[in-house]
Amino acid sequence: MSLLSNVDKDHPMQHHLIVPIDFSSIKNVPESHIWAQCFEDAKINPDNEKSGALISIPIIDLEDPKALGLIFNACETWGMFQDTNHGVSKELLDQVEFQAKNVFNLPFEQKMKVLRAPDEDTGYGYPRLALFFSNQMWNEGFTITGNSYYHDAKKLWPNDFEGFCEVIFEYQTRMKDLGDKLKSLIFKSLNIPEPEEATPKDHIIALNLNSYPPCPDSTQTMGIGPHTDSLLFTILHQSGNASGLQVYKDEFGWVSVNPHPCALVVNVEDLLHIISNARFPSAIHRALINNKQKQRLSIAYFYGLPLDFEVSPFLDYPNCGGPQFKPIKVKEYASLKLKYLDLAVSFVRKSY
């Protein structure tokens, strides 16, 4: 049982919101998956251009001597950046992408053997975001926390599960190392001390494999609806065969985050938004379906803090203007997020 299971048990999902359709058998987009408004949003800027210049999130070399300042500026301006020289090899990124494809290309009946329980956070199914949208999203996910992958892999490949487990273990290890490094860099960029935490095993950390299958009419569907993430930050690997991820920025609208060779996307989550006293926006992002023929994959690693850790704004900097948020424990915020999605942060915001 994962650290988040007790939180999930208080907010179980209805069964029909967990079970994906069998995408391999779909000839036309069903009514349940049509998002008529997704391409009628007046704030969309399809070309991401302003004054003839391409608009994109920063790409930061973590070995650059100026990395701290670049990270601060990117987090403050976008709530998101892509990083290179992050220490995760291209071979490992290719391997985890290959293993994700192996999961999602299994027959539907086989994937259903690891269907997520309504009150659990691991296994196969639609994302929990499905609770908050009237239409279903064009994706399927496989969520891993801790060593949950071992038991699920034995159900998916009873006689050949070791390869999947080895790759996932190695990927989790490298992502944890990178997450620790990014946390240190981000907190140094804010000039604040790193949180004094419990033992590493108490951290909330999750790995989510995402598949966006080929779609008969990609103009009618949404891969992932707009949202912010809940914890400190997300580290995302995108497959390079198609773009789909977008981040929202007031002056530009929706800006595409196109895959950059060997780069990983890092986005600010809600708890870092609170700790930074709103200096860093929690990135509003979504995923479109941009390819009718090809499957698109992404692998998201969510880096958090222990459930019992109390989060509050750090105020020891000039002109901070007082705390914008009340202190709150991670598990309390996780519960608010599961009930209210992006409205959760408003319950923590102070009113003056």
Automatic annotation (TrEMBL):
Q: Does the keyword S-adenosyl-L-methionine apply?
A: no
Transmembrane segments annotated in the record for this chain: none
The lineage's top-level taxon is Eukaryota
Fe2OG dioxygenase domain residues are 200-305
Family matches, as PROSITE patterns: FE2OG_OXY (PS51471)
Give the molecular function GO annotations: metal ion binding; oxidoreductase activity
**What are the protein's UniProt keywords?**
Iron, Metal-binding, Oxidoreductase
The entry sums up its family as follows:
Belongs to the iron/ascorbate-dependent oxidoreductase family.
Q: What is the official name of this protein in its record?
A: Fe2OG dioxygenase domain-containing protein
Q: What organism is recorded for this protein? A: Chenopodium quinoa (Quinoa)
